[in-house]
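ESCALATION

Customer reports they have been waiting on this structure for their group meeting. Please prioritize. Original submission:
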Amino acid sequence: MTVRFHGIAGQSFGAYLADGVNFELTGAANDYVGKGMNGGRIVIRPGAEVTGHPVLAGNTLLYGATGGRLHIAGRVGERFAVRNSGAVAVVEGTGGHPCEYMTSGTVVILGEFGRNLGAGMSGGQAFVYDPQGRLETRMNPDLVAAEPLGKAAATTLRSLVEQHLELTGSARARTLLGDWETALGGFKRVHPKGNVARIEEEHEGSAEETPESTAPVAASDK
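Update from on-call: job pushed to the front of the queue and completed.
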């Protein structure tokens, strides 16, 4: 079943979505899109009157999500996919702290991203478009690693970008696919290092913990 919406959605659009239900929004949404979702699909695209590179959703998207898919043809706010534990998502830019405490799932970021990417990330992967080479200064190298894509990862990424174009009509996805070999050189795959669980356990409840480290999280979808 597909449900179509037009306009501005409030808090928690598509929260607790389940398999077999698809939400398609032409417009924009507030915080907590896909909160707790465990299946289904959420697609957000801008209206025909929107130009440039719009922000189409707020903060803390996919908080507590365990499955499903999210495709947004625009940028989103902070703490995108925080504590994602199984969802698959494609967006075109994020604020700070994307993929914070992520334990599983796959995230694709096709545009600008903020600092502290992958903090506390203990599972899953993120494909980050970084042609300007900023990623190394915006993640914690003690916790996560960023590396060029191997053949299998490149195949997975291309499939996700193609699906993103099909579902959203994204101009950015179309441009990247139009010169894919060049675009591919700008992507890095971010994944947790093996010692992240030990480091997190050592600092659990310590004085070093900050309000940011305990903030709500966004969940993704498969």
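Sent to customer with the following note: The chain is about 20% helix and 25% strand.
Escalation resolved.
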